[in-house]
Amino acid sequence: MKEDIEQSENSVQIEIRAPLIIQTNKRVNEEKVENGCNEKTQNRCMVYLSTFVAVCGSFAFGSCAGYSSPTQSAIREDLNLSIAEFSLFGSILTFGAMIGAITSGPIADYIGRKGAMRMSSAFCVAGWLAIYFAQGALSLDIGRLATGYGMGVFSYVVPVFIAEIAPRDLRGALTTINQLMICCGVSVAFIIGTMLTWRTLALTGLIPCAILLFGLFIIPESPRWLAKIGRQKEFELALRKLRGKDADISEEAAEIQDYIETLEKLPKVNLFDLFQRRYSSSLIVGVGLMVFQQFGGINGICFYTGSIFESSGFPSDIGTIIYAIIQVPITALGALLIDRAGRKPLLLASGTGLVIGCLLTGISFYLKGHEIALKAAPTLAVTGILVYIGSFSVGMGAVPWVVMSEIYPINIKGAAGSLATLVNWFGAWACSYTFNFLMSWNSFGTFMLYAAVNALSILFVIKIVPETKGRTLEQIQATINAS
């Protein structure tokens, strides 16, 4: 009886003590979260490092895009190129990017995200070396085509890789760094291009490629890609490496595995299979955003900013410098806001600013053409262009790439990503090619046309584009499929 009484008392004490222990542990965990314990930051160090390595590809992208502008006169003088030959040198970049866009998805699916970035870096290195040693137009064009191909692959695989490794609460901000680094690459090429020879400037393009190639030996592969191809042990190691050795990855791993198992039951898809009804929602959103991003006029305005300022009566050198400076901080602001404000609010705010910028610039050309308020026209033009560039940088420049990396199911991500990237680069070529023809037709009408396209993009975002903030990639797919 004495032993029974003692056991009873002990059991009561255990029952009393257990809830207190649970409550104490719960309170300690809550205090850690409230106090901003650095354990969370330590667990995400590999995510930040992996993102940094990946966006070196984005910087290389920007270096390629910004190379031709500050080097035009020097290259033409040194190699005796005609305007037509240099125009081919500049425009062949987009053709290389289109080829890269077509092949980027299948390559990233076949050899992995890291393998695709490694191959893209190799093309960029070969292209820059061909430009550096060029003695005529042919070598220049081959080098430019190779760097363009690398750009096309980078433009797809970098945001996809970042989206697949990032935690849900950081995915938007980290993916937006892709666009930020592209802007940095362009701005740096513009600035140092005024101080270096064109051959030396080509060598600077090797620096981000070298950092990327070295960093790829350190960072893990995308866990979702590893799970997709059945490399279970490597999948768990990669996810553990990204989340930290003390993190509980069981729930996230199970969610990814369940989703992969569901996808394995689906048939393999090619480019033509994308047009099935089951993929229509994702395809319309991804491709639609790319169409509105490019046909809203960005590449025409970007490539010919100097001539726009000159036509309006504003000094082109001052306007171009302001343009280069304003891109980076505003793109950084968009990166800070995307996971707080959400994707749709940024797209809507950006679209509204694009419409206003086009209207202001169009009105300035209208005033100049009708000789009304001639002193106000240049100020109105530069204000409109800066509003346009700022609005594009904060939303429409980066967010479509973020959404594209989020909405496609992993079984069609390669083919669908290639299609969206191809559409993007075709739009870039079409817009830049037709801009001068449109301006010679009617400057006011050109910007009114762009304003109309950007107004349609606002309606498209309101009606079609889903909000993906704060959701896992698997939850996004479940929502799209349910709709």
TrEMBL record:
Membrane topology: Multi-pass membrane protein
Cited CDD domains: MFS_GLUT6_8_Class3_like
SUPFAM superfamilies assigned: MFS general substrate transporter
Pfam families linked: Sugar_tr (PF00083)
PROSITE patterns in alphabetical order: MFS, SUGAR_TRANSPORT_1
InterPro entries cross-referenced by the UniProt entry: MFS_dom, MFS_ERD6/Tret1-like, MFS_sugar_transport-like, MFS_trans_sf, MFS_Trehalose_Transporter, Sugar/inositol_transpt, Sugar_transporter_CS
Gene3D superfamilies in UniProt: MFS general substrate transporter like domains (1.20.1250.20)
Localization in the cell: Membrane
A GO CC term attached to the entry: membrane
Keyword set, alphabetical order: Membrane, Sugar transport, Transmembrane, Transmembrane helix, Transport
Domain Major facilitator superfamily (MFS) profile span(s) in chain numbering: 50-469
Domain of life: Eukaryota
GO molecular function, one term: sugar transmembrane transporter activity
TM ranges: 47-68, 88-108, 120-140, 146-165, 177-195, 201-219, 283-306, 318-338, 345-367, 379-403, 415-435, 447-465
PANTHER family registered for this protein in UniProt: PTHR48021, SUGAR TRANSPORTER ERD6-LIKE 7
Cited NCBIfam families: SP (TIGR00879)
Family, similarity comment: Belongs to the major facilitator superfamily. Sugar transporter (TC 2.A.1.1) family.
Name recorded for this polypeptide: Major facilitator superfamily (MFS) profile domain-containing protein
